[in-house]
Design a protein that fits this description.
Elements (H helix, E strand, L loop, with lengths): L6 H6 L2 E10 L2 E10 L3 E8 L4 E8 L2 E6 L3 E13 L5 E9 L5 H12 L6 H12 L13 H8 L3
Antiparallel strand pairs: 1-2, 2-3, 3-4, 4-5, 5-6, 6-7
Helix pairs in contact: 2-3
Length: 156
């Protein structure tokens, strides 16, 4: 393996870039972004009480994603080219999801995440448990929609 893409180097070079606070329909959401100049991005969305709602971990084009509605998924970013009526080529990135979470992607993500220093121990542990779960889809959360689930937290 080329040295610059070792999971240890990728994890160690990933640092927190920003924290944003959003409020939509009365629901508070905190988003965090971690980035490495070597092709790693981690986005985490929590509710106002710190409960994880979703995360997306991008590693050199591989994707590991979890949300409270659908559970854990893996995939890869594919670039799609299209020609518009003016014969200009435009590209867009799409996520091609795997049929089932791939063990090799989860193992690689596990190694990178383990080396991240800026991520809190609690969040890191939560994600590492997802990656190592023998039945990752079982961690899916409620079967109803995310918005109704979030609204239920704020009802008196």
């Amino acid at each position: 393996m080329i040295k610059w893409i070792s999971p240890e180097k990728l994890g160690a070079s990933t640092t927190k870039v920003s924290t944003d606070f959003l409020k939509q329909n009365g629901i508070e959401v905190v988003s965090e972004w971690y980035h490495s100049p070597h092709g790693v991005d981690l986005f985490i969305w929590n509710d106002g009480q710190g409960r994880m709602l979703r995360y997306q971990f991008s590693l050199l084009g591989l994707i590991v994603e979890w949300n409270i509605n659908e559970g854990l998924k893996t995939g890869m970013i594919v670039e799609e080219e299209a020609t518009n009526p003016l014969n200009k080529i435009s590209t867009s990135d799409l996520i091609n999801e795997d049929e089932f979470p791939l063990k090799s992607t989860l193992e690689y993500a596990f190694k990178v995440l383990s080396e991240m220093k800026d991520l809190s121990t609690q969040k890191k542990q939560r994600m590492l448990e997802d990656f190592g779960s023998p039945f990752p889809q079982a961690r899916g959360g409620p079967s109803r929609g995310i918005l109704s689930y979030l609204k239920s937290w704020f009802k008196p």
